[in-house]
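Z., the sequence and structure:
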Amino acid sequence: MVQASLRASVRGSTFVRLLARLSDAEPVPAGGSVADRLGLWLDWTQAIGLSSALEGKLPEASEAVSAFDDGEGGTARAALVEAIVTERERDMGAAPDFAAFRARYLRHQRAMQAVTGNLRGRLRDVLAAVSPEAARLAEVDAFMESVLSPREHRLLAGVPTLLGERFERLRGAAAPGDGTWLDLFRRDMQDVLLAELDMRFQPIEGLLAALRGITG
């Protein structure tokens, strides 16, 4: 399922290109407009909900909440990056067991999801208190997250499987006694983790840019 989705993805995404390389798939440009492609992810009831969020009555701005520290997202992201990079460095002498790599990848995914989910929700709360227009943006983002996140989570859950296949191919192609393949795999896994982190932060960067534009 993940490989089929990759072939239908937009060329140029670092995360997609990395996964395509690991799975020997060639990503191709997706046809149609953004609205057409989004329509493939939404059923008719969800489409109605999106239309209401976009075109309905402007919501009232909520009561004021604590301001969002502009550097908070960068600090949280830097901590996640450090955890990914330093773990690879500590891992250089570990035995070649993919089960350990899989558990590690899933742990990083859970950490990314927790951090980005918290930041995204707090940014929506701040936007909702700024103005009715900003509150609408927060409402649309909340709707999109609720609709698209389940499918996103299912697709991202398949990434360790692709890495497992890459692990076995590299090990099978290596000469006896040659351990360079394991270093290559560690590098591949780190690159994929960092690219997934970039992808998960995109909605946060969008909300933060909107907040800066409104309040700056």
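Residues 1-12 have pLDDT under 50 and may be disordered. The chain is about 75% helix and 0% strand.

Let me know what you think.
H.
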